[in-house]
Amino acid sequence: MSAFVDALASRLPPGRVSIDPADLLQYGRDWTRDWTPAPSAVTWPRSTAEVVEVLHISRHFGVHVVPSGGRTGLAGGAVARQGEVVLSLERMNRIDPVDELGQTVRVQAGAITQIVQEHCERAGLTWPIDLAAKGSSTIGGNLATNAGGLNVVRYGHARHWVLGLQVVLASGEVVEVGGALEKDNTGLDLRQLFIGSEGTLGIVTEATLKLTRVPGKLDVLLFGVDGLPAALRLLREVRQGAPGLLHAFEYFTDFCASQVVEHRKLPWPLRNRPHAYVLVELEAPDAAVLEFWLGVALGVPGVSDGVVAQSSKQARELWAYREDITASLSAAAQRHGVGAPHKNDVALPLALLEAFCAELDGDWRQTRKAWPLALFGHLGDGNLHLNTLPPAGLPPTDWPSACATADRELFALVRRHGGSISAEHGVGLVKKPYLHLTRSPAEIAVMRAVKAALDPDNFLNPGKIFDP
Ligand code: MLT
Ligand code: ZN
Q1: Which of 120, 318, 324, 367 has the most CB atoms around its CB within 10 Å?
Q2: Which residue out of 325, 343, 387 has the highest number of ligand 1 atoms within 8 Å of its CB and is therefore the one to mutate?
Q3: Can you give the residue range of the structural domain that contains 246?
């Protein structure tokens, strides 16, 4: 292995390679804690040519490559556990000037999502993918995982906001797919092949992002509801009658709120503690019309309370109850003696969500009454996050198998209701064993054929999504 590291060190400029155990640990994993990172080295190329060089050297020494962005993924897609080299793109963070007429910007893959957004905002434009992790996630990671987030209900996923990609293939060849063209109807859309492929088909090194105007004034409302059916009735009302454009429709239970209240030392968000909350964000409604509509929304059966943020500070405070759930649950997991909560991220057709949740509350929940369960998510997209913590008294060694059983039963339910086992977090290592529950044998066969065509030696990010 040292010959490999020596070759990297001698063929790349100084400071591009590390075998420091702290770097191997930090760069060998994402936000998951289920695997022990064990990369052989970490490299930080600064240009596409250096990425190509790393691939050539790695191939020569038979070392597989795990591409790495901001490492905020939740599916183990950036975990290196078998002596791979981690190719971190974080030093490739150039952001070009915004093309204001074309409403595009060209960036390198390691540019931080929030920094790209702030750069574009100076021209009145934005890349509209809003994630709780945007301060650390990178554009390359967002594209590799087809990130979703808080405003999918308005803008869709990352894949809708890309015009062109530069990709280094497993062979080391550099290809430009797409460009700055809004319209280019010439055969297969290869951009979309790489977006969401979790670094298994090629390494995205640059992207031309499509931008949109920065939204106008956003009003944030928080409702108390007596359960998911009421939240869905509120969604119907929002879609039919709310003034302004719907920007976010988020759901979280009282248990989630209690975790944030405890962790962040915040007051309870509403006067009374409802069973659950819905956070609605609307762009630019007229104030008087919004006030009138709030009265209508409070008349929806099961909606018990509601407030409108009166300032941007208050809006941020209301958002904290939703955005801080993940961090608060991670802190709670430490107190429960595990590295992270056990996470699931499922999608259901909106029309079947109520039936799904009713069944979930049946056998699945009844056999796990003692499990702390955080149910939250992007309800407007039919996307639920289920995070669980180990119940008191369960020996820590029994927790993984208890979670595996719970997952199998959960995914069977998801499948019966026509849902997906991974709405927005991707597949990586975490969901790989269950891919067949959402994708048909024919679809997986096509995926395998694509992988075999682009990376026949399983050189890039091996073991992720499916085994070839
Ligand atoms: C979120 O929406 O906050 C994350 O995607 C969910 C999670 O941490 O499970
Ligand atoms: Zn989410």
Answers
A1: 120
A2: 325
A3: 218-323
Q: Mean pLDDT across the stretch 30-54?
A: 96
What is the average per-residue pLDDT within 20-25?
98
**pLDDT tens, 420-441?**
999 999 999 999 999 999 999 9
Supply the DSSP symbol for 397: G
Ligand 1 atom closest to residue 424's alpha carbon, by position in its atom list: 5
Write the CB contacts of 12 (distance below 8 Å, at least 6 apart in sequence). Answer: 43, 45, 50, 53, 54
We report the CATH number of the domain holding residue 293 as 3.30.70.2190
Q: Kindly give the distance from the C-alpha atom of residue 170 to the centroid of ligand 1, in angstroms, as a whole number.
A: 31
Judged on CB neighbours under 10 Å (0-12, 13-18, 19+), 98 is buried
Clarify whether residues 279 and 227 are in a common domain.
Answer: yes
Total structural domains in the chain? 4
CA 426 to centroid of ligand 2, rounded, Å: 11
**Domain end point (choices 37, 58, 88):** 88
**162 in the same domain as 209:** yes
Residue 252 lies in a domain: yes
108 and 205 in a single domain? The answer is yes
Of 312, 89, 127, which Cα lies nearest the Cα of 206? 89
pLDDT digits (tens, 9 = 90+) for 182-229: 999 999 999 999 999 999 999 999 999 999 999 999 999 999 999 999
Residue 207 and residue 226 share a domain? no
Q: Is residue 372 part of a domain?
A: yes
Which DSSP helix (H) or strand (E) runs through 263? helix 254-264
Last residue of a domain, one of 174, 189, 213: 213
The verdict on pTM exceeding 0.85 is yes
pLDDT in tens, 245-292: 999 999 999 999 999 999 999 999 998 999 999 999 999 879 999 999
**CATH code for position 158:** 3.30.465.10
Instruction: State residue 68 phi and psi, 5-degree precision.
Output: -140, 135
Q: Ligand 1 — pocket residues by CB below 6 A?
A: 74, 132, 325-326, 343, 385, 387
259 in the same domain as 206: no
pLDDT tens digits, 355-396: 999 999 999 999 999 999 999 999 999 999 999 999 998 988
For ligand 1, atom 7: residue with the closest CA? 326
- Atom of ligand 1 lying closest to residue 385 CA: 9
Whether 232 is in a domain gets the answer yes
pLDDT confidence tier of residue 72, bands split at 50, 70 and 90: very high
Supply φ then ψ for residue 95, to 5 degrees: -125, 120
Other Cβ atoms closer than 10 A to 213: 11
